[in-house]
From TrEMBL:
GO terms for molecular function: catalytic activity. It comes from the Archaea. Belongs to the enoyl-CoA hydratase/isomerase family. It comes from Halogranum amylolyticum. This is Enoyl-CoA hydratase/carnithine racemase. PROSITE patterns: ENOYL_COA_HYDRATASE. SUPFAM superfamilies: ClpP/crotonase. CDD domains: crotonase-like.
Length: 232
C-alpha cells in the first residue's frame, strides 16, 4: 500500500506494508509509479513504514508468476519512472533494503541512510537476481569491483559500508531532513540540475544544453539574482 502526503514543495511517499517488510506486489508498483510521476512537488521523499525500507518483490507473487519477464519489465518501468521524474527523488533508507528495494533506491537521485539501514541482493542465494534495472544501475553507482562483490555475494552491507562504497551519500538520523533541505531550494534550478546530470548525451551536446538551461534560469530569475547581489 502506497501513501502520499504533500507539504509545500515536498511530497512524502510511504511504502506501507510493514508486516511484509514493505514488499511490493504489482498493484503496489503501479501505485508507486503514480505517486512519483503524478506530482508537481520539487522533491519526492520515498521511504518505508516500520523498520524496513523495502524488501523488494513480494516472493509470494514471484512464486506464482505466469510471465516472469513481464513482471521484471513492470519493475523496470517503475524504476525508470523514478529516475526520469521531473522531481528530485530522495530515498530515505531507514532499515532493510533488499533486492528490488535496493534497485528502487538506485533509481532515486539521492540515497540517504539511517545508521540502522542495511542493503543486500539476496536473490542469488536461491537462484534469482535483481531484474528491476539493478544490473545496469549498480555499476554506475559503485565501482565495478564493489558492484560485483555486492551483487554476487548476496551479503548484507551496513550503512557505514554503504557510505564507503557509494551506495548512499549520507548516513543521518533522519533522512527526511535531507529531503527538506533539498526542497528548500529553487524548484527550477533543482529540475535543471537533475536533468543535466542525468543526461548521457555526448559531451558537446550536454554542454550546449547546459548553457541553454543556464541562460533560461538567469532570465527567469534576474530579479532574485540582483536582490541576492545587493545582500552581499
Amino acid at each position: 500500500m502506497i501513501h502520499t502526503t504533500d507539504t509545500g514543495s515536498l511530497r512524502v511517499v510511504t511504502v506501507d506494508r510493514p508486516s511484509r517488510r514493505n514488499a511490493l506486489r504489482p498493484v503496489d508498483l503501479d501505485d508507486l509509479e503514480a505517486a512519483v510521476a503524478d506530482t508537481d512537488a520539487a522533491v519526492v521523499y520515498l521511504h518505508g513504514a516500520g523498520d524496513a525500507f523495502c524488501a523488494g518483490a513480494d516472493l509470494d507473487v514471484v512464486a506464482d508468476l505466469e510471465d516472469p519477464a513481464a513482471f521484471a519489465r513492470h519493475g523496470q518501468r517503475v524504476a525508470d519512472a523514478i529516475e526520469t521524474a521531473e522531481s528530485v527523488v530522495v530515498a530515505g533508507v531507514n532499515g532493510a533494503a533488499r533486492g528490488g528495494g535496493v534497485e528502487l533506491a538506485l533509481a532515486c537521485d539521492l540515497r540517504i541512510a539511517t545508521p540502522a539501514a542495511t542493503f543486500a541482493e539476496p536473490g542469488v542465494q536461491f537462484g534469482l537476481f535483481g531484474a528491476w534495472g539493478g544490473t545496469a544501475r549498480l555499476p554506475r553507482a559503485l565501482c565495478e569491483g564493489d558492484a560485483l562483490d555486492f551483487a554476487l555475494s548476496g551479503r548484507v552491507v551496513d550503512a557505514a559500508e554503504a557510505k564507503r562504497i557509494g551506495l548512499v551519500s549520507r548516513v543521518v538520523a533522519d533522512p527526511r531532513e535531507v529531503a527538506e533541505e533539498v526542497a528548500a531550494n529553487e524548484p527550477d534550478a533543482l529540475a535543471v540540475v537533475k536533468a543535466r546530470m542525468r543526461d548521457d548525451a555526448p559531451r558537446e551536446q550536454q554542454e550546449r544544453a547546459e548553457a541553454a538551461a543556464f541562460e533560461r534560469l538567469v532570465r527567469a530569475h534576474a530579479a532574485d539574482i540582483a536582490a541576492d547581489r545587493e545582500r552581499e
